[in-house]
Amino acid sequence: MPGLKKGWLLLALAAAGPARGQYLLGVTGSNYAGTNALSHNPAQVVDSRHKLFVNLLTFDEAAAGNTLAWKAPYSLFALQTNTVSARHRAPSGLILWRDEYLGEKTSTKPRRALVTADLRGPSALYTFNDRFAAALSSRLRVAGSVTQASADVARILRYGTAETERVESQAAGQRFAFNLDGYLELGATFGAVVLNSDVDFVKAGITVKRLVGVYSGHVRADNLRYRYVPDPTAPTRENILIENVDGQYGFTREAAFQDFRPTPQTLFGRAAAGGGWGFDLGLVYEFRPDVARYTFREKGETRLDPTRNKYQFRVSLALLDLGGVRYRNPAYVNAYEVSRTNRLLDDRLFGPVGDGEQLTNAINQTLGVSDAERLAEFRSALPTTFQASFDYKIQEYVYLNGTWVQRLRAPRSIGPVAFNVLSLTPRYERKWFEAAVPLVLVDDYRALTFGLALRLGPVFLGSDHLPGLLNIGTPRGLNAYVGAHLPLFRQRPTLPDACYY
């Protein structure tokens, strides 16, 4: 299946980002993260060091999984950015590629792979006063994943049916899920201080997100039983006889992406392929044993210095990405739910596959599906997670952050998939400079990696997975992010009668 082999390579290597894509572990723990902290906890909008924070652009990408390991003599980053050296290029200038550059991980565990890309567009955070703040945000998220696939199914997706020596001749009880989603988020965040009592400080926040579906595709197979059979038209080939499968699959047409325009009817009506709503909920507690150091009186009122971090430790809890996108525009949606026995899969049908619509047609032809079985709609759920973090002040400007990300959606849900992550990140934090070194357990806590993030003035860049970026060892993933913003910081009291206790 040449078309599917190309798709597997894309899924394994490139961002169309999380496993860790949306986490920005080297950034989100910072007290100067601005709108970039809201994807971790919307309560961070309030009691910010910023009076106004305008995000110009933040881009984040990631790829991870337990199926393939990168063994090429050049890095994934060099491949993506076309900076591979001349000694690994053909005379024509094309980058040299061999199948052995993607080594297969030997394991009996279900195979999974995930790529994400996250583009955070113009966004703004504004602090009204010491108690209230709000933000508006825009974000384009793209994610593709394969989950719950056996080693044999993963090999079929990668190699097709031509290389039968790599795959068992028959198998039963197989299953897998594939998802590819791209959607726009328009968010409104509101935060408030709910408790400010001496050493105890609590704030809460909520983000309401309008979701606009740009593209979506999924294939889910259950109770899959198959065996290889000779191809009567080509003695050297074999096809797959699907003895049984229960499945659900659906794709939006390419026109859904091509016709997309940021009009009110598209963003808030039903002109897009799909639409829906999402929600983030967050709560933050801070323990402030030295709060008196940051207290002053201004115009007869007791206030806290808004330019300083006042906690000894901070605990953040959040439920993120509740909701989903419902795809029901009949002009763009193709979806089916089927049960079939004894259907022949000829990989030559999938050779010319280049988009979701062509893949749908190839599956329909293989399974003998009629238009009468077409579904009117399908729903793609957001990658719901529970996120918790603990941020401890070691000394002035030096912090240690621990973050836990636990997915709440089943890996086989229709929609983007999140992987579980656990991280420990020391950081040095000043107004105009910051450095952080994330130590991360990724791939559902199975693999340890490390990263580096730097912020200089209004620009930051980093990676939560440096081995994948620099080709250290045999990387199983890739992550990189970069961003720019305009900060307007809150000010200390300047009135003559303002004084600290």
Secondary structure blueprint with pairings:
Layout: H1 2-13, E1 50-65, E2 68-70, H2 76-81, E3 102-104, E4 111-120, E5 123-127, E6 132-149, H3 151-159, E7 170-197, E8 200-231, E9 234-252, H4 254-258, H5 264-268, E10 274-287, E11 295-298, E12 301-304, E13 313-327, E14 333-340, E15 343-345, H6 356-367, E16 378-381, E17 385-395, E18 398-407, E19 421-429, E20 433-436, E21 439-442, E22 447-450, E23 452-456, E24 459-463, H7 466-470, E25 477-489, E26 499-500
Antiparallel strand pairs: 1-4, 1-5, 1-25, 2-3, 4-6, 5-6, 6-7, 7-8, 8-9, 8-10, 9-14, 9-15, 10-13, 11-12, 11-26, 13-16, 13-17, 17-18, 18-19, 19-20, 19-21, 20-23, 21-22, 23-24, 24-25
3D structure, described in words:
The protein is mainly β and 501 residues long. The chain has a domain at 2-67 and 105-146 and 185-214 and 260-326 and 380-500: Beta Barrel (Porin), CATH 2.40.160. Helices cover 11% and strands 50% of the residues. The protein has seven helices and 26 strands. It has helices at residues 2-13, 76-81, 151-159, 254-258, 264-268, 356-367, 466-470, and strands at 50-65, 68-70, 102-104, 111-120, 123-127, 132-149, 170-197, 200-231, 234-252, 274-287, 295-298, 301-304, 313-327, 333-340, 343-345, 378-381, 385-395, 398-407, 421-429, 433-436, 439-442, 447-450, 452-456, 459-463, 477-489, 499-500. The strands form three sheets. It has a 21-stranded antiparallel beta sheet that branches. Strands 12-11-26 form a three-stranded antiparallel beta sheet, with no helix packed on it. It has a two-stranded antiparallel sheet with strand order 2-3. The longest helix has 12 residues, at 2-13. It is globular and about 90 Å long. The chain starts with a helix and ends with a strand.
